[in-house]
Design goal:
The protein is an alpha+beta fold and 258 residues long. The protein contains nine helices and eleven strands. It has helices at 15-23, 60-68, 73-86, 122-127, 134-150, 189-194, 203-217, 221-249, 254-257; strands at 4-7, 31-32, 39-45, 48-55, 94-101, 106-114, 120-121, 153-155, 163-168, 171-176, 182-184.
Length: 258
Amino acid sequence: MPNRFVVHNSKIDLKPLVKEAIRDFENYKEILGDAERNVIKIVRLNDKKYAIKSFKIPNVINQIAYRFFRKSKAERSYMYANNLLEAGIKTPFPIAYDIRRTPFLFKKSYYVSELVECDLTYRELTTDFSIADHEDILRAFTRFTYELHKNGINFLDHSPGNTLIERTKNGYEFYLVDLNRMEFGEMSFETRIKNFARLTIHESMIKIMSNEYAKCTGEKESEIFRLMWQYTQEFQNRYHGKRKLKRKIFFWKKKYRD
């Protein structure tokens, strides 16, 4: 059959509830995040909160690609979440994914996970330097990223909103979200450092992260900082270049005028 609905073996008792929640997705009102492209809604099943992410219908070319040649974002999110948990990396527990297809085209897809209610995300570290344990969190986050790299996990969307941070009595726990773009395998030194490029524009944060990463790896701190700052600037130049081009092309759309 074109459609596919998969529930984690350990959560099979939730299958009818999850199926019904996806069917009633439009009726849920509590939205998580900005919902600019994809929409995440919070639902309560058996007195526990879950997140359902609805991916927008792709363009026609990608509808063909996802129908016949590529795994959907929802399926990849589910697979990669399981891979992370097996490697000892935290992420909201994957419950299910649901994909809708016609005989020739891919249409809607949904990913369902447990909801992690965190204390903050990495994004707050980039905007609020008055956080009392700011540097402690940043150094712990850098050690967490090193663990990803040591396990051969290249999180391609390692960006400010995609790491949830929970304060615990023993320090900090980090949870990765928005998982559909990952690569697995041994990472070169340059690839590891480039993985920090999307995280911040602040040189002071880069200095702390390069110092901590040098402690983790034994590599030369000055070289780590040089590359980390270089890749950060290159990413920012590409990002703002794309934004400028989109403002010219899509000048009538408010989000590109702001």
